[in-house]
Amino acid sequence: MKRHDIQLDSDGRLRHFLTIEGLKRDILTDILDTAENFATVGEQNVKKVPLLRGKTIVNLFFEPSTRTRTTFELAAKRLSADVLNININTSSTSKGESLLDMLHNLEAMHCDMFVVRHNQSGAAHFIAGHVAPHISVINAGDGSHAHPTQGMLDVFTIRRHKKDFTKLRVAIVGDILHSRVARSEIHALNILGVPEIRVIAPKTLIPSHAENLGVHVYHDMNEGLRDVDVVMMLRLQRERMQGAFLPSEEEYFRSYGLSREKLKLAKPDAIVMHPGPINRGVEIESSVADGPQSVILEQVTHGIAIRMAIMSMVLGRNPGGEIKEAV
Amino acid sequence: MRILIKGGRLIDPANDIDGTHDLYIADSHVVAVGDGPTGFHADSVIDASGCNVIPGLIDLRARLREPGQDHKASIESETRAAASGGITTLCLPPDTNPVIDTPAVVELIARRNDEAGYARVMPLGALTRGLKGEQLSEMLALKNAGCVGISNALAPILNQQIMRRAMEYAANTGLTLFIHPEDPVMAQRGCAHEGAVSTRLGLAGIPEAAETMAVAQHLMLVELTGVRTHFCDISTAHALRMIKRAQHDGLPVTCDVTTHHLHLIDIDIGYFDSNCHVRPPLRSQRDREALRQGIADNSISAICSDHQPHDADAKLAPFAMTEPGISGLETLLPLSLRLAEDGDASLSEIIAHLTIQPAEILGLKLGQLGVGSVADVCIYDPQHSWTFASDEMLSAGHNSPFNGWSLKGCVTHTLLGGKLAYELRDIPTL
Q: What range defines the domain where residue A123 resides?
């Protein structure tokens, strides 16, 4: 059976951005290089470029999010696009039918891009499979499946600190089982040639066959952190205590929380990352989150540049617009 | 009505027949095989040369959506689809609305079947009232009304003491108990096989243990109660191994498998193809190989479609939010025949898994074409291959993951009790 990647158009360029899995290294490098150009836009007095003037981008959030939605909104506005924010209570669209109806209504308003966040894995693929041909979809997080813009901004941040991906040892610590961020990070790091990716968590938070993702599994943080160049912490959802995944926040922090002591096991110049929002004292000690090795706030800044890069690449594909000349 | 089916290759595993034989039918029964009875004048002759003539297929599990879900399908639409697939007998699980837990519902279905049936619909009665797992249903009354087995369908019975009593009582009725082995808590919220694919896609997994724990628990109770038990939809190698051991130990247990579990695995979900959302989930390649082996060694007695037609909306949502199930009547025969092509079992063994063996599980004198048998016949062209298109399905549900597959074994005629229930008009092409 033939199966084409719906993310790519017939020329192999990004039509949607749904997952990092399966993308070529060139595309990832393109995104990172483009983001590098945009990173300076935010530092200028006039923070806008006219790349997407006249385009309409809809932030379609079926799941609450402040930070991700804000950075998408800022990214779109800095590209001079018109932005519409729609927050939908998932319970009112539990039937796929009304979800599609809503999409078709938005299509009828001549939108160009949907930025979608949804609590169901596969929601972005589902929407991309049903939109009109002129509309692009960007996945802003779907269930436990993928959060590809977060994955890209994380590797962007790594590249700014560590020059060569092929010499790195990276540890991802926390709730791998439920984390779309971890999955996207793992795909990005593997595609960019990182030779050793470790995931560190108790057995209850490691998914079945995790090794197949291309990682080494550690259950002991003291072993897993040894000599790594990058420590990527994940947010721990409080409801994991109810599901019997963990006994208590205290025990989790003692065993898997990043303290100054534990960080000493990593390389002295290791950087510490976190997708936010941080649970201080649950997965990370405040002094580490705010410490000299932390690049957590840089990640937020880079999130805007990465999202500008992806939006402009996806919407800038079609020739004959101001887009080409502006770049 | 006298019918002569002429020149076909007759394959009747029950009578150990495989060769070119004419089949003579009169008054809804087979009256002769090979040489015609003296003075037989056929009202109608079907030229079956180049075709295979087999007993009408018996599908152990098909949801027809009637009564209760008319927006999805009806007895008429689905029995018509069944006939086009060579199926003459369908076993209907009790989870209709209303539930098949009173003789009145059995009669309602029988009446609808008489009015609009292109195949024989045989209901299974509910094990507990309303399938709620609390009170026993009136199993003897259900049996007398025409139920061919007893089952709680997909509804779990959480209280094992009630399960034990229900099994004892079912044993007492002589009805076979149909079990869907799935531990409800282990399977909770899951929508895909727990493994590399569910991990990659971030889908909640259903572990193998959801099936093996349920099989283990039920096997203990079979030993205790002695009820003849049929396990539906076995999907894992491990559960099959446990059932084989129980068969070896002499427990009265049989099992079946669906065509989709014999052909598809979790990888076929691709990027969230909701047509591959089924329950139990598509498992690993290792499981699929073991299930095919189970057909060959006959530890699995029957192949069924587990037909679940859906309206389009039911499959239009993110994967986990879609309704599970495949519309499978029209692919049951060709997908089963493919196993013989693949060399997993002989053609005659495959036909047995679709005819005489499911008939034996139901205790019905069907699925065979010896003299005196009911003339339920399927005639198919084994060489004709075509591209299966789900939007051309006769079933009201077009939810098939086999869209675009090249299939072989095209049904040309289906006879139900000696009457033509289906005849191929337009020959589908590749």
A: 25-145+302-326
